[in-house]
Amino acid sequence: MDALSEELPLLGNTAVPTRQGWDAAAAAVLRKAGRLAADASDSLALASLSRRSEDGIVVPALGTAESAAGLPELGLPGHAPFTRGSAAPQSEETTADGWDIRTYIAESDPAAANRIALLDLRGGAVSLWLRVGATGTDIADLATVLDGVYLDFGPVVFDCDDDVDPVAVAVAFDSILTTRVLRSAPTSNLGADPLASLVRSGGVDPGCAATASAAVSATIGEVGAIAARLGTRGVVVDATAVHDAGATDAQELGYSLAAGTLYLRALVDSGIDVNTAACLIEFRYAATDNQFLTIAKLRAARTLWHRVCELSGVVESARGQLQHVVTSRPMMTRYDPWVNILRTTIAAFAASIGGAAAITVLPFDDALGEPNTLARRIARNTSAVLISESHIAKVTDPAGGAYAVEELTDATARAGWAQFQLIEESDGVVAALADGSLAARVHAAAVARSADIARRKRPLTGVSEFPLTGEQLLDRNRPPTSGTKPRPGALPAIRYAEEFEEMRDAPCSGTLFLATLGSVAQHTARATFVANLCAAGGITVDAAGTTATPADVVAAFTRSGAGVVAVTGTDAAYVNSAVDVIAGLRAAGATWIILAGRPSEDLAPLVDDWVAAGVDALAFLHRTRAHLQETT
């Protein structure tokens, strides 16, 4: 301990570091990095390392017993309020099997879908998540797709396209079970979720909310009756429908509570008792590569659903929320798709820590089209490695008790409940879709996120940062699109990388010249910054290399034949030679001159544009591409 104290003297010479010790240690590092003033209070250090989520929730850099004081009691895993998990932990004598590894199949060819299903099940998948409709399997082909699948042992969860009647899917599955004289696995789900179709298609006209709500309730009631008879689940609340459209974590939670409440009421109104009805519903959430926010969201979701069930008169044993968690589709990229393996691994890790009952890891090439065999295998094995090699499932609620996580969970739950109340103020989720209020909030969140992505405050590795120059996209078949045309008010799915990728898809024909001042060591920082940014926007660059005088720079520019120039160098080089370099470039025919870095008062009138960290990179790239097009 003495040796440790010598290494970390600011933490104090005690076995338990104090808050003051943490403040001092963090402050010392920040001052050394130039991120905290020498005369600033140590107490500002950790606050400067904290950040805010898209919902405005503070994500603390350090949690303490004092900061977590006053939080509600969480109880034990498997007990109210189910924050720590919907299921009780395994006994010491029992080895945890982990979560349900659920594989997603959206294949129009029934024979191919059957091959994929059997291969995935033999390769470690526990259940199938089967898309039915124009973007997946036809209802008439379900028997072929499920041939050879042990339906009494392996769960099947259906996912109905917007053009498919969930009741017809339920009837078809019932017929398959009857023909094969089987009883469905209890955790199968008939997949009725008409609200998700309304979200994606925008199918609620203003003034028709009551009619649409009645249709939703009727569908849920019919499917619920079939599910209750089959002894399986019948309803899914797919909150990824709003997540995919850009919703924040709190908006995703609020939507799921509103949809779950509507479905619970519809099941009860159809004649199913409230306790049975609660057990017929499964919830689907998205997991992102922001692990702590994902963990908090899943823990908060169970807390909030417990409260809804409690207010609805559901017995405690039926209030545990069954969560199917899917790695986020919006975070996936088409360029440098191998990075998606890292993103989905972090997301799956967070989902498991957060207590998901089933996890679907999307293949790394999902954004490109139909995943190939290797991608599907890696996706399955991500969960297998986390369970069997990392032993994540050995511990129940491993994040429980961590002060920062508990603070974040509580704050996320409160923000989710507030979003739920906003929806209820519109007289329910269908009315909120009809009046556009839900779409407006989600759109506002998406716009704010897009602004952060454009300024690279949310970097996308391989796309907006560190792009792979000359990359060729992987060749994948594109799946068919839904037969339902989106209507006004729809919340279409987006991907965070789309705007950058669109520029990469259409490379600029011109070349930007890098007017590098001085030696490589002197200009490399800003030259590399500009080159990487241009590569992210489909712009080719040609650098002057080492230069000693303004004449060297101008000569290299003349040889390049370019018209658009970016001047890069140190601040000292700008003071000494930038004026002469810019004048020489103008005289040599430069039509658009950009300065790397914020220009001084003297240089600002001499250049046409400038770029530095924190600017709107997308806007800069579009401007630059436009000028390059003019010069070719």
TrEMBL record:
Keyword terms of this UniProt record: Cobalamin, Cobalt, Isomerase
Cofactor(s) this protein requires: adenosylcob(III)alamin
Positions of the Methylmalonyl-CoA mutase alpha/beta chain catalytic domain: 137-473
Cleaved signal peptide residues: none
Top-level taxonomic group: Bacteria
Protein's UniProt keywords contain Isomerase: yes
Keyword Isomerase tagged: yes
Molecular function in Gene Ontology: cobalamin binding; metal ion binding; methylmalonyl-CoA mutase activity
GO CC field: cytoplasm
InterPro entries linked: Cbl-dep_enz_cat, Cobalamin-bd_sf, MeMalonylCoA_mutase_a/b_cat
Any Pfam family the entry gives: MM_CoA_mutase
SUPFAM superfamilies linked: Cobalamin (vitamin B12)-binding domain, Cobalamin (vitamin B12)-dependent enzymes
Subunit field text: Heterodimer of an alpha and a beta chain.
Record-stated family: Belongs to the methylmalonyl-CoA mutase family.
Protein name, UniProt field: Methylmalonyl-CoA mutase
Organism: Nakamurella antarctica
